[in-house]
Amino acid sequence: MSLIKEMLSYTFLLRAIIVGGLVSLCAAVLGVPLVLKRYSMIGDGLSHVGFGALAVAAAMNAAPLSVAIPVVVAAAFLLLRLSASGKVKGDAAIAVVSTGSLALGVIVISLSTGMNTETSNYLFGSILSMSEEDVRLSLILTALVLLLFIIFYHHIFAVTFDETFARATGKRAGACNALLALLTALTVVVGMRLMGSLLISGLVIFPALSAMRLCREFRHVIIVSSALSLVCFLLGTVASFALAIPTGASVVCVDILALLGCFGLGRLRERG
Amino acid sequence: MALISCRDLCLAYEGKIAVDRLSFDVSPGDYLCIVGENGSGKSTLIRALLGLKKPRSGSIQYGDGLKQSEIGYLPQQTPAQKDFPASVREVVLSGCRAAPFYSASEKRRAAENMEKLGLTELKKACYRELSGGQQQRVLLARALCATRKLLLLDEPVTGLDPAVSAELYRIIRDLNEEGVTVVMVTHDVDCAIERARTILHLRTVPLFWGRAEDYRESEIGRSFMASGPEKGGDEA
Q1: B118 interface with A at CB cutoff 8 Å
Q2: Of A84, B65, B130, B185, which has the maximum CB count within 10 A?
Q3: Topology of A2-264 in CATH?
Q4: Total Cβ atoms within 10 A of residue B37
């Protein structure tokens, strides 16, 4: 208890907890349709693109998000397009874009500032990096994600379950996919500097997978995924503070433990 | 007036012609079976009827109050659906329009369709845990939420055992007798002739279009039935 009290006395930690909690929530909600549509790696690809964008922004002395947001959103649409066109296989397309951006980012960094702590922070996240601006941004993001997700929930379900049928019955599957890509891109950008661009996709994938093991109704999967993601983030942050380990990595490890637990529970229920 | 009339339809993928010189009508109350071997253009035709594929030339017209988006489509199942966490009720409801939320009448309609297909007791059950036959009934109930007039069924009995297939055919027959027009794509030519009112035999071009009785007597019909087309349906 005293540990938590101590944590809350640091303003930077409080900010990180607010931003991280909100981003975890958004990522968990969006992760469910992404995982079910076999788009899990889009989150991963986007964060690598985000790393490249941050590196370029730093080299140009521009505000990081002013570069990262448009670039990552554009990449999201590109990836979606590539997956849909079928010319390059979806997973290969993502690998091409993400590795390319990572390489570009590394070159830009080494030519400008050189490898330093900031680079490491981009890659693995830093709990110290959250400003008041980030808190405001994450609040807006969360409101946007939850609102749009609730409004288009039934359409998202229909398109995720059966895109062909949804298209045939006049639902706008393309618009639905674009919405998911857009919101995922924004979530990744906002969460990236806290969680690390190499780790942020864990927030998208793990809670959704865990919840899918436990729940038998789509609505419940969304709710459990959000709750689980939030709890794992808080536990991960406390563990990171107590053990003095990086927050992003710590949160992802807690998410993995939760996933293992859910697999175990799912097994037990199948047998029982 | 016909619900659907195709005139001189030509469908192509990247320059390769899949369906050519096809003209046919679907009249209200019809039970039309579209038969043909793998690669004969059946799946492409379905996509065109649903508006997912633009004709290269020719036309598809919808009449008698049918809109393209009001076709009750029963697709073949996708691998992603096998482990999909959703309840029966959620899947059936997803056949309704939702603008953007389900109206009371849409919910009532879903409930009626679940009742009609004997799914009311299963409505909370998880779709992925159902048997193949039950899953098809769920998807059929969803299709009925999307239409009052026309069902378009793509190989509905693929992978089902004979007793379950017979049950599904009986349900489809009943729906047809209640006035729902049925268009079914199938490999299973024997079953098709037994049940259908009209047959369209496709091999890129139409080889036969007419009454099922006439098809049985026709040369093309006799040779196709004798050759015993392969069962199962993994047509691309």
Answers
A1: no
A2: B185
A3: ABC transporter involved in vitamin B12 uptake, BtuC (1.10.3470)
A4: 16
A224 to chain B: which residues are within 8 Å by CB? none
Q: Does A267 touch chain B (CB under 8 A)?
A: no
Phi-psi category of B21—alpha, beta or left, where left has phi over 0 and alpha has psi -120 to 50?
left
Q: Read off the amino acid at residue A260.
A: L
Measured in angstroms, the CA of A44 and the nearest CA of chain B are apart by: 21
pLDDT at A88: 60
Q: Count CB pairs under 8 A between chains A and B.
A: 81
What interface predicted TM-score (ipTM) does this complex get? Answer: 0.90
Q: What is the mean pLDDT of each run of 10 residues along chain A (272 residues)?
A: 85 92 96 90 87 89 88 90 69 84 90 79 84 91 95 95 92 92 93 89 94 94 97 95 92 96 90 76
A217/B78 touch (CB, cutoff 8 Å), yes or no = no
